[in-house]
What we know:
Blueprint: H1 4-18, E1 22-26, H2 35-40, E2 45-47, H3 52-64, E3 68-74, H4 75-80, H5 83-92, E4 97-102, H6 120-124, E5 130-133, H7 138-150, E6 154-158, E7 176-179, E8 185-189, H8 193-199, E9 206-210, E10 212-214, H9 218-225, E11 231-240, H10 245-251, E12 257-264, H11 275-281, H12 286-297
Parallel strand pairs: 1-2, 1-3, 3-4, 4-6, 5-6, 8-9, 8-11, 11-12
Antiparallel strand pairs: 5-10, 7-9
Helix pairs in contact: 1-7, 3-5, 8-12, 9-10
Amino acid sequence: MDTMRERFASTASRLLDEDPRLAVVLAVIGRDGFREAERRHPHRVIDVGIREQLLVGAGGGLALAGMRPIVHTFASFLVERPFEQVKLDFGHQGVGGVLVSAGASYDSPSAGFTHMSPGDVALLDTLDGWTVHVPGHPDEAEALLRRSAKGDDRVYVRLSLQTNERPLPVTGTGFLTVREGRHGAVVAVGPMLDNVLAATEGLDTTVLYATTVRPFDGSALRRAVGDTGAAEAVIVEPYLAGTSTAAATEALADVPHRVLGLGVGRNELRKYGELSDHLAAHGLDARSLRERVSGFLTGSV
Length: 301
């Protein structure tokens, strides 16, 4: 199976053939995946070099000229480093585009902390009007990218090496009910689904699957926890823990509730290790999630 990032390159290359409004903007990283597309569309595959602020600024400029830019690099270089350009060149100018990241929170531990971005979604939460997609499988990434390319809004698509075994239907809106239960709800975001399903096996709880986290589907969460008793919800996200707890709390504001946000901790792990080591260290592997989720829902933590 190809990776989400490989699927992104092949899909975006086909989209360039289909829609003359689209342009892909790169900062060296990812250019190899667009060699053929660059030969076919030399003026719509643009490599600005290792200049991340220019990367986003060029995307904003293309949008002002009526194009639909697809801007790509690692999350830390796409959201964190050029955040001022994201804020001003897209948001302040009132134009749309598609930011597609790679690297996720710690996909490449050996690259060090410079290539890790657990705070990207939380940072975008400080801005208005961004749709955020977090696919859990390459097929989902393709579907969400195709949907994003057609619009005029501001979209962030967060790709990862971590994937679920099987894709699920995605619409770009709302949460999908994967398992129904009577006690509480667990929202699994993107590539967290397989671990959440393993962790909640045998528990009488509802599991919701979120590939679009902004806007947050508060209505689905509200329905899942029910109308009686104290509502209990767990949000399992592959980025900074607690990123969506405020949204969940707002959705449950009219009922007594408890919300637990699980995700990447704020502590920096200074040993490289592998992706699986970082998942375990942040308590996002199936065994750790089982302890944390079951303990919360049974009231033992």
